[in-house]
Amino acid sequence: MASFLLAGTLAASAAFASPEVVSWAFSGGLRPGWQDHGWSPRKPRAAGEPERHLMGSYGGWILAHQGPVGTFGALTFQVRTFPPTGDDFLEVQLESPQADLPPVKVTAAHRKPLADGWSEVLVSMEALNPMLQPFTTVRMRAFRPLPDPGLVEFDFVGFTAPDPALQKKLEAQRNAPGVPASFVVDCGATAKDISPLIYGIAFNAQSDATNGAQWKLNATTRRWGGNPTSRYNWEISAWNTANDYFFENVDPAPRAGFTWKTFLDDNRAHGMHSAVTVPILGWVAKDTSSVSFPRAQFPDQKQFDPDGRNAGNGVGSAGPILNFDQSRTSVAAPPDFVARWVKAITEHEKKPGKTVGLYFLDNEPMLWGDTHRDVHPLMPGYDELLERTVKYASAVKQASPDTLIAGPAEWGWPAYFHSAIDAKAGFRLRPDRRAHGDVPLVEWWLQKLTAHQKKTGVRLVDVLDFHFYAQGNNIGVGTAGSTDADTNARRIRATRGLWDPTYVDESWINEPVRLIPRMKELVAKHAPGLKVAIGEWNFGAERHMSGGLATAEALGRFGTEGLYAAWYWTFPQEGTPAFWAFRAFRDFDGKGATFAEQSLPTKGPEGASLFAAKSADGSRMTLVALNFSTKDALEAAVTLKGCPAATSQRVFTYAGGPMGLEAREVAVGAPYRLAPYSMSVIELTLPVTKRK
Question: Which fold has domain 21-170?
Answer without folding.
Answer: Jelly Rolls (2.60.120)
